[in-house]
Amino acid sequence: MQPMSRRRRRLYLYALVAVFVLCLPLVMFYANGYRFQSGTGFVLTGGVIITISKSDAVLSINGAQVGTSGFLRHNFYVDNLSPGIYQVLVTREGDNPWHRTLVVEPELVTDAQAFLIPVEITSVRLVDAAKVASSTATTTPHATYELYRKAFLPTSSTSTPLVALHKPVSEVLAVQGGDVSVLWTDPDTVPPSRFCLGPSSCGTEIPVEDGKQTAVNAEFYGGGIVYATKEGGVFLKEIDIRPEPLSVQLYPVRGAEFRVVNGHLIVKDGTALYEITGL
Amino acid sequence: MDPKDTYWYLHVGRASDLTGRDRVYYRLFEMLPGVLSIATLLLFVLLSFTRPVWAAYLTIIFAIYWLLKTVYLSAHLRHNFKRVRHNLSVDWNERLKNLRHQEITHLVIFPFYTEGYEVVAESIRGLLASQYDHKRIAVVIAAEERAGKAQRAVADRIAADFSGSFGAFIVTEHPAGIPGELPGKGSNISYAAEEARKRILDVQQIPYEKVIVSAFDIDTVVYPQYFSCLTWHFLTSERPERTSFQPIPLYNNNIWEAPMLSRVIAYSSSFWQMIQQERPERLATFSSHAVPFKPLREVGYWQRNVVSEDSRIFWNLFVRYDGDYDVVPMAYPVSMDANVASNFWGTARNIYLQHRRWTYGAENIPYILFAFLKNPRIPRAKKMRAAFVQIEGFWSLTTNPLVLFAVGWLPLIVGGRAFNATVLSYNLPLIAKGFLTVSLFGLVVSAAIAMQLVPERPREYGRFHSLMHLLQWILVPMTMVVFSAIPGLDAQMRLMFGRYLGFWVTPKNRKLANKV
Question: How confident is the model at residue A25, as a pLDDT?
Fold first, then answer.
């Protein structure tokens, strides 16, 4: 039996070179987002990627169901989208529905992170264990209670500054003149997509509370901003410039204050302390 | 080296063997493989930071190229496998009947260092099991003085047990510390070949042109008709004195006791040789090979001052005969040991070191480039082709796996937010992974062929072990990086920085003495 003939080898080689030459531009066009759509021909498409940190949430785009998040599936990349505006909806039992209007541009991917907040948010009254006869599961250890209480003292070192840093440190929270906003302070870096109305049109400021009420305090918490207003109590709002950022009222009592102490969200209403749970 | 000699450069081992401008040229050529590989990888890293889109395009191009290369090479592998199967079924003795084969003598050299009696004895028993007139086989056990008296005693015991069965049987002892030599296989078998000339060929008045030398490893076990097949190829060759002969090294001696990692790498090495057998213009001798004695003597035997004497002897002959020298692929196997140490990490270490030694074959690049400069009689087209094949081969070996499985993905990590917001950045992993997954088709071909080459399963191993012989192929992407690209880069770096490698002898450990 003879070795593979030169003729046959050349044939293989030329055929594969031809496949390479034909394949290469097609793959490159495909990689950049070119798709053939009947009626319009080749269209330069874009995509969206939605991150859903919780399981069992259903993602729909323009009313069409895309999928359900699970233990191993938290990112949904949807490509082949013609440039335009898309309505994204994430629903999950027990959570507020999350809507977002996203702009898709050619060759670019618009990303967003679903901000899922439970419908039922409870505030638990904290009771100082030192002031009841016997400690129970519903009482707070005295030292912890004192820590929370002192956090609200005017001279306390844990009092909320007017400007807070966040990760990345280029993101800064500002409370000025009763308004709350998040600012992007690094002019050399492209800000995250929540600062961008579209992938190619980014700003440097996201208004969180812009005048309807008078904010007195704000902090980064739970992936969003917690702030208190003179008029409405304590709120949690998503940080996103795109419509409509989700906002929920955590403690609807005028004059309530809040502090974040060791990761716990504590609200002071008069002399009583409450912890907001369920977020 | 005598400058008056036409081929004074024939045995240059490294730049330090030369002086003046020649030394500078040779040193630059030594640096070339490492420079090309590092430059390619650095280019990818640099582009990933500064031009991530370009780096992504290059990665996709590499992935497409890889798939098509897999298809191309798989076609060669499949054809060679058919040829091997055919050649194993042919009665080569029957074919020899019409040829004057009785005049041919086979000189078989087994270089021997610290291996035990059983390893050597099994190789000799393989010769005895061959269906060829044993009286026309002359055996040389090439021992090393530096291995000590105990090893010499093993060699003598082998001689005592087997010498009566062959036409001639001698033990040679390569003296230690000969100036200008690199301790290793090349210097040992060169010494042995010259001793065999004096003690066997001249004594028995055997014409040199009627002698074929099989330069084996100590663990090489021949298949039954190896000598008949080799004789047939020699006698039917158009220019037998300008041709070496290359069998396929299978690592079947201990394949059932070898760990999964070792098996994959052993078969990958065999398959690479099988593919090369279908591309003879790219073939150089490797590992166990056969070469006619006359040109071998004229060229001064194997080079004594290099690590890769097996491939270098081909280039010595190619240069000495002005490009008029070829390798004929026999498509007939010999069996050797897969790498097995006493534990997994020992095996992994041995595999790494063995592959670093093999990939140190890049030392042939400066040699051939320098020799091509000095030898105007080699046709320019042959020079260009040989140089390209060698340089491209060692460059691909090192860079392709690293680009496809490591640095090619770098744009996703360091490309920055602007790149990560593009459709291209999302499609890069999908497309590259898609092409690489389809390339796994090559592994299916490999697994199917390997299952047909593996010797019969010994009773002590169950069916699960057979299943693992199939599943082992999923390790290939990892082995390509860890045991091919990285040792290759290591070898090229050593050459580049002048930290030359010595000869590392692969330890031969066997639990069983499997029959092929």
Answer: 95
Which residue type sits at B195? E
The residue of chain A with its CA nearest to that of B332 is: A1
Of B72, B82, B83, the CB nearest to A13: B72
Residue B516 token pair: 């092929």
C-alpha to C-alpha distances, B494 to A219, B31, B360, B390, B485, nearest whole angstrom: 57, 9, 9, 18, 14
- Our measurement of the distance from residue B59's CA atom to the centroid of its chain's CA atoms, rounded to an integer in Å, reads 29
- CA B168 to chain CA centroid, Å, is 28
Those residues whose C-beta lies under 8 Å from the C-beta of residue B274, and which sit 6 or more positions away, are B76, B77, B80, B81, B84, B248
- CA dist A166 and B40 (Å) reads 40
Burial of B422 (0-12, 13-18, 19+ CB in 10 A): buried
Q: How far is B232 from chain A (nearest CA, A)?
A: 13
Q: Which residue among B86, B278, B421 sits closest to A109, beta carbon to beta carbon?
A: B421
Burial of B25 (0-12, 13-18, 19+ CB in 10 A): middle
B98 to A23, B11, B231: CA distances (angstroms): 52, 40, 12
Q: Do A30 and B431 touch (CB under 8 A)?
A: yes
* Domain-wise residue ranges, chain A: 6-32, 44-113, 122-277
Most distant CA pair in chain A: distance in Å? Answer: 99
Peptide bond into B329 cis (omega under 30): no
Query: Cβ-count burial of B303 within 10 angstroms (0-12 exposed, 13-18 middle, 19+ buried)?
Result: buried
Tokens of A13: 């080689």
Contact B214, B292 (CB under 8 A): no
- For the whole prediction, is pTM greater than 0.80? yes
**pLDDT of A160 strictly over 50:** no
Mean pLDDT, to the nearest integer, of B452-459?
A: 88
Mutating which of B423, B426, B433 best tests the A interface, going by the most A Cβ atoms within 10 A?
B423
Output the CATH code of domain A44-113: 2.60.40.10
H helices of B90-181, where? Answer: 92-96, 117-129, 149-162
Fold of A122-277: Lipocalin (2.40.128)
Q: Which of residues 40-59 of B touch A (CB under 8 A)?
A: 56-57
Q: Report the distance separating Cα A40 and Cα B305, nearest Å.
A: 69
| DSSP state for residue A279 in the 8-state scheme | -
Residue B145, pLDDT above cutoff 80: yes
Strands (E), A129-246: 139-140, 163-165, 171-176, 179-184, 196-198, 201-202, 205-209, 215-221, 224-229, 233-238
CA geometry: angle at B38 spanning B33 and B44, to 5°? 135
The one-letter amino acid at B37: S
CB atoms within 10 A of CB B206: 21
Q: How far apart are CA A239 and CA A220, in angstroms?
A: 9
- ∠ CA A269-A271-A277, nearest 5°, is 45
Q: How crowded is residue B337: how many other Cβ atoms within 10 Å of its Cβ?
A: 29
How high is the ipTM of this complex? 0.85
State the DSSP string of B49-63: HH-HHHHHHHHHHHH
User: CA A187, A188, A194 angle in degrees (round to 5)?
Assistant: 65
pLDDT of A161 higher than 60:
no
8 Å CB contact of B87 and A1: yes
Tokens for B168, please give them.
């001639």
Output the pLDDT for position A140. 87
Q: Taking 70 as the threshold, does the pLDDT of residue A251 lie above it?
A: yes
B272–A contact, CB cutoff 8 A: no
Question: Which are the contacts of B434, defined by CB distance < 8 A and separation ≥ 6?
Answer: none
Number of CB pairs < 8 Å for A and B? 85
